[in-house]
Amino acid sequence: MKNTDKPARPAAPVTHKPRNSKALSHRLGRLRQPGSAGTLPQFRPADAPQPGRNVVLDCGWGRLLFARTFEDDATLLIALKDEAPRSRDIAFYVGEPHVLLSRAPQEIFLDPSHTFRLDLSTYRPGGRRPRGITIRRLGVEGDAAGINAVYAACGMVQVREDFFTGERDNRPVSYFVAQDDKTGEIVGTVTGIDHKRLFDDPEQGASLWCLAVHPQARQPGIGEGLVRTLSEHFQARGLAYVDLSVLHDNDKAIGLYEKLGFRRVPLFSVKRKNAINEKFFAQPVESYEALNPYARLIVDEALRRGIHVEVTDAEGGFFRLAHGGRTIHCRESLSDLTSAVAMSICDDKAVTRRFAEGAGLVVPEQISADAPDAERQAFLEKHGKLVVKPARGEQGRGISVGVSTTEALGTAIKQARQVCDRVLLEACFEGEDLRLVVIDYRLVAAAVRRPPRVVGDGHAPIRRLIEQQSRRRAAATGGESRIPVDVETKRCLAEQGFDLDTVLDEGREITVRKAANLHTGGTIHDVTDSVHPDLVDAACRIAKAIKIPVVGIDFMVRDPAEPDYVFIEANERPGLANHEPQPTAERFIELLFPGSRAYPGA
């Protein structure tokens, strides 16, 4: 017979909120993917200490629910349903996930991750630590913002602002950061949880969360260094093991963990069905995986808002969005809202320059590469250094920056003609490359784009350093950013007295290309909060002059916080990715579908 007796409502779970001491300034964490540990022993001495019950840990990005401390599934489900908006809660160490899922299949799902465990009794410290990087405990003013910047760059849920304030008990939670010795920037982070201190775990276990390395970090081995540091920290405490969880298809991370001695264990995690987790449980968009990161960013935002997505040509980045009777075709950030006239203005750099000049912007002096030899030579002598670029083209192809000799000028022109028959020569303005993303004639993001650089280790030739950095850039951008080893790269090295076989001294950093385009290995650094108002005004004026609703305006500046600039070009299809934490995709979708809102929990 079916039992119709209704069980009493379980007691509410106990929530543990880690507190910050003033000495450590801020505490934070963020889950990458769930981890797990073994089940509680079936037999325990009567006088043995009992572990905590219904343990929930607030991590700022969401909560960790240690499922094996919950008295039953009903209590765990009640806790999971209490998830806050814009958060990602995780039920960790679920012993029988199939049973839990059967109780609320419409609300929860099994996380598609593998759990790995490191046995600290056999782990041997060591390994090569990253050069130019200091790994330390969280504690310096500004660390919290630095960690959130890393999370944003990695596409992870950021820690809410109120988590950074107040006193928090930090004993169960350990935060480590990797700091670039040269720039002082936080480029990596990891969070560890001591289960013994958190809920008197009889197994003396621990778990690793939120391992993240900034995609633009220059030094290799940061992730390994963070994992080793945390593992040795817990080993010194006398703990037995460290668990972590990683997406089943993250081959690079899995390779790292296996290299360090982690072994896969059959443990599981469960999450709620919300907008943040949608891609893990919802019917996938056909050809979604074939989209590049720039198209995928927009598609993800559309799906969060309940907008229908149809991928029309994945290789080219084309997709169609439909919502409320309105349909718009896009190619990444280029949409039906951009007219053919506006696109043609941006397509020809000489025409774009004339529009910018007409709008009152400061433009560089420019001549055609088809000018007589004497005129070209006089132009070179007048300005000392030139920028050579095809009149039409994108992604930095064919561009040479800082050309200063007649021989180099001829070579650069030939290289540019491989992209477009018409080639332009411009006066070279020394400074930084500033990209301003303007959507609906308002600034959404500003970022300094810096050329690719490598750091010597005293052993590897520059060629190998470039290959290593190029692989990291490609991995961080879905294959969109690589450093080409071409005539321009060789010219840049030669000007500094190097070639591809030169071995740099340990710690010496050099620029290997002068163009800062992301597609040729450049990196991008957000300056939205500090960009000078005059630069914002100039970018919006040229956007209005062209009558283009979405555009990337490129300036050369000495300092983005100062008003001086020279206009370079306008890009009708700006990449909206890599501008974290600015809401580029959100503003783009709001332009296309005014009034659309993300689903609750997004």
From TrEMBL:
Domain of life where this protein originates: Bacteria
Residues annotated as domain ATP-grasp: 353-597
Domain spans labelled N-acetyltransferase: 133-283
Keyword Transcription among UniProt keywords: no
Gene3D superfamilies according to UniProt: 3.40.630.30, ATP-grasp fold, A domain, ATP-grasp fold, B domain
UniProt KW Transmembrane keyword: no
Basic residues: bias regions: 16-30
Stretches for region Disordered: 1-51
Family matches, as Pfam families: Acetyltransf_1 (PF00583)
Keyword vocabulary terms for this entry: ATP-binding, Nucleotide-binding
Protein name, as recorded: N-acetylglutaminylglutamine synthetase
Organism: Rhizobium wuzhouense
Taxonomic lineage: Bacteria, Pseudomonadati, Pseudomonadota, Alphaproteobacteria, Hyphomicrobiales
Gene name in the database record: ngg
